Amino acid sequence: MPAIANATNISVLPLGWLRVCLVVLSVGLFNFSYAQGKVPAPPPRPLPTKLVFAHYMVCCPTVGGGANLEDYEHEIQEAQNRGIDGFALNNGGWDQGYKQRTTMMYEAARQLGTGFKLFISADYCCDNGVEETRDMVESFRNHPNQFRYDGKPVLSSFAGEGTKGLSEFVQREFQSHPSKEIVWVPYFYPKTYHEHPQPTDVEQVFHDYPVLDGYYYFGAVGNGDEITTSNHLLAQKWLGAGKIFMADVSPYYRSFSRLNETQGFKNMAQEWEGAIHDGATWIEITTWNDWAEKTYVAPFGPPEKTKLWGNGNADFGSINYSHVAYLDASRYYIDWFKTGVQPQMTEDKIFYFYRTEPKAATGKQFSPAETKRGLKEISGAKDLQDKVFVTCFLTKPAQLNIYSGTTSQTFNVPAGVNHVEMPFALGTQRFVLQRAGQILIDKTGEQTIADRNGETRYNYFAGGAAGASGITVRNH
Predict the structure, then answer these.
(1) Beta strands in 97-189 (DSSP E)
(2) Among candidate residues 274, 307, 339, the one where a domain is terminated
(3) Antiparallel, parallel or unpaired: β 282-285 and 183-187
């Protein structure tokens, strides 16, 4: 009872007197702490804005090595139109070519004036060292489009844990000087070189590199379960320590020696949802334009187009089919991540994914280099599924009919995001979405499935369609 009486008395004090009492109390507490030798803690750092980046291979612009300022502006616009906030610029070297292209990208962003963010992701696979790192940072430190966190330029990397003296250099060159500080968020391999880190790997990297401000997970290789689990373990450690964690999402991986089945967009959606629930600081799509390893999501023309610059497809090991549907399907998750609110469905959309020849046909041919090494099959190819995969974003339940060659299957699909699949057959692939007898979408895939004598080397094709109520989309 006395406590209640005291509370009541306080509540009727004049507001001015209450403010005076609070000020006196706070000053007294401050002086007491100071007298006891306790310096008050600094105010907490504001929560970083949720941002989505794409890993950009500076070596390989969409239009080729002769890309000009307008070409880079176009790539930036394509990315921004799909919700991407910036590029992490992967530089596998720092010779005149790499630096010139990087400078041109920064200038394109500046001239556009749209606030597109850029930061270096130094690739230490090859020739980069501490001197190149210094120049990468200082060349763009004060550029208006340089991505900054807490007022400091951000530097990322692929690898670097084995680069002699790199951590000591960053500590000495940047972190020890307030005017030259950076925010360092690299991807470092653990000592085991596990691409999907175990808890001991996570602890080892965190313990061995206290200079890091955070960690980026370059998770291009793997299926949805592997990448999502890796993101989760890393997020727990780095976010739990009050540091930055930049999660990975990736569409599909196929290098010259290995690949991973990702079931159309299903695995990528799993990675998005995992990163969102983990509370990742930022997310990086791996990649925008790695044409060789097939992790690209960048648009490079209509869905019928399959050839890029250079020597046709020889530069990249196989046909390059459109992957932009991976990026367009990601827009739902990009908005969810950046706003913290799961979006409402306002339009019916479908996205379809399939390889354009059976895996048995793809395995017929091998490059001379692979044959010379005695390689008989790409690792992981046996796990591929000869299926058509479709992801539906629906405002209400609907019926989806998939026609694959001479076969077909009907799916009753609930509202929301749902994934369906069926075995594919040679021939045309057609997708018909209807609700209550009304056709909403009638779309024929731009690529057929055929025996192509192995020229696709297991690459996926991706496409999509959207239909507002009462509007039919047809192209067959």
Answers:
(1) 117-123, 148-149, 152-158, 183-187
(2) 339
(3) unpaired
Contact, 84 vs 333, CB < 8 A?
Answer: no
Residue 151 maps to a domain = yes
CA-CA distances (angstroms) from residue 63 to 69, 84, 111, 180, 291? 12, 20, 20, 36, 12
Neighbouring-strand partners of residue 374: none
Q: Look at residue 428 and give its three-state secondary structure.
A: coil
Closest CA to 54 of 290, 336, 282, 288: 288
Q: What is the DSSP secondary structure assignment for residue 39, as one 8-state letter? A: P
Residue ranges in 13-116 assigned as alpha helix (H): 15-35, 69-81, 96-112
Give residues with Cβ within 8 angstroms of 56, minimum separation 6. 87, 88, 89, 90, 105, 287, 288, 289
**Is residue 146 pLDDT above 60, yes or no?**
yes
391: tokens are 């992801």
Q: Is position 40 within any domain?
A: no
pLDDT band at 453 (very low <50, low <70, confident <90, very high): confident
183 and 324: one domain?
yes
Is the pTM higher than 0.70? The answer reads yes
Identify the band that residue 15 occupies on the pLDDT scale cut at 50, 70 and 90: very low
- Is 139 in a helix, a strand, or coil? helix
| Spatial contact of 61 and 287, defined as CB atoms under 8 Å apart | no
- Please tell me the total count of domains within the chain: 2
Which of these three, 339, 361, 396, is where a domain ends? 339
- How far CA 285 is from CA of 35, 83, 276, 404, in Å, comes to 51, 12, 13, 31
One domain for residues 294 and 360: no
Q: CA-to-CA distance for 131 and 343, rounded, in angstroms?
A: 45
Per-residue model confidence as pLDDT tens digits over 25-70: 343 433 434 344 455 555 555 677 999 999 999 999 999 889 999 9
Among 284, 304, 248, residue whose Cα is nearest residue 54: 284
Q: Are 361 and 454 in contact (CB under 8 A)?
A: yes
Measure the CA angle with vertex 199, ends 194 and 200; round to 5°: 75
**Within a domain: 307:** yes
- How many of the other CB atoms lie within 10 Å of CB of 316? 23
Percent of the chain at pLDDT > 90 equals: 72
Cα separation of 104 and 109, whole Å?
A: 9
125 and 242 part of one domain: yes
Domain with 94, as residue range(s), is: 51-339
- Please report which confidence band the pLDDT of residue 470 belongs to, taking 50, 70 and 90 as the band edges: very low
